[in-house]
Amino acid sequence: MISPFMIMKKKPLFIAIEGGEGSGKSSLMIALKDVLGDAILTTREPGGSPYAEVIRTAAIKNPLAKNTPTAATLCLMFAARFDNTTNLIVPALNSGKPVIADRFDASSYAYNVWAQSNGELEEVFWNLRKRLAILPDLYIFVDVDPKEGVRRAQSRNQSLPMIGQYDHFDNREVEFHEKVREGYKKFFEKINHIVIDANRSLEKVKTDFISEIKKRL
């Protein structure tokens, strides 16, 4: 007799990768896709779905975005997130494919709620979060010392072939990124997560990261 547990499909997981500037998230996502290929769907935030990518450009690439009220930025981030979850993430999960996101709502909390508004937008954040179609099953926090992260980000930006390929958060002072890190830690006091030390070499971080993903998928 075949046990019913043997034929049950495992629920596909939704995992968010979070971390400050220079933490290496994008490199880790590329490495993960190289290993797992089409077995997973990768997305990013803000962005991911076609309309969310349009919002991304307005929210973090447009030069005017640097001086907009933080509440406007937070709402734009959630507008992109609502579209990404509804039109990309949920359909992929329903089809049985795991989803790995480069950033999700923890970034909005760390950057907009904590670092930019000093907690004034906390209630707005949690109310918007309740309306998302789905939330991650797990967050992986790729934690880097802000000074090292800023150094890496500046080095990366100098190598970009065109001005405007990075966002205005990259140019903030180290003190801002220290507040971002505090914001992540505050968010993760309430949320299921694991931490990966990103102060080490990229190869070591990649090994641990891919191992953690494989173990759960």
Topology readout:
Blueprint: H1 4-7, E1 14-18, H2 25-36, E2 41-44, H3 50-61, H4 70-94, E3 99-102, H5 105-116, H6 122-129, E4 138-143, H7 146-158, H8 174-187, E5 193-197, H9 202-216
Parallel strand pairs: 1-3, 1-4, 2-3, 4-5
Figure out the total of helices.
9
Gyration radius over CA: 17 Å
Give the class from helix and strand content and strand pairing: alpha/beta
Order of helices and strands: HEHEHHEHHEHHEH
| Unreliable residue stretches | 1-8
Quaternary status of these chains? single chain
User: Alpha-carbon distance between the termini?
Assistant: 27 Å
- Mean pLDDT across residues: 90
Total number of strands:
5
Helical content band: 40-55%
Q: Sketch the major β-sheet.
A: 5 strands, parallel
Shape, please?
Answer: globular
Beta-strand percentage range: 5-15%
Q: How would you write the strand order of the largest sheet?
A: 2-3-1-4-5
Q: How would you portray this structure in words?
A:
- The chain is α/β, with parallel strands linked by helices and 217 residues long.
- Helix content is 53%, strand content 11%.
- The chain has a 5-stranded parallel beta sheet with strand order 2-3-1-4-5, with helices on both faces.
- Helix 3 runs antiparallel to helix 4, helix 4 runs antiparallel to helix 5 and helix 5 crosses helix 8.
- It is globular.
- The two termini are 27 Å apart.
- The N terminus is likely disordered.
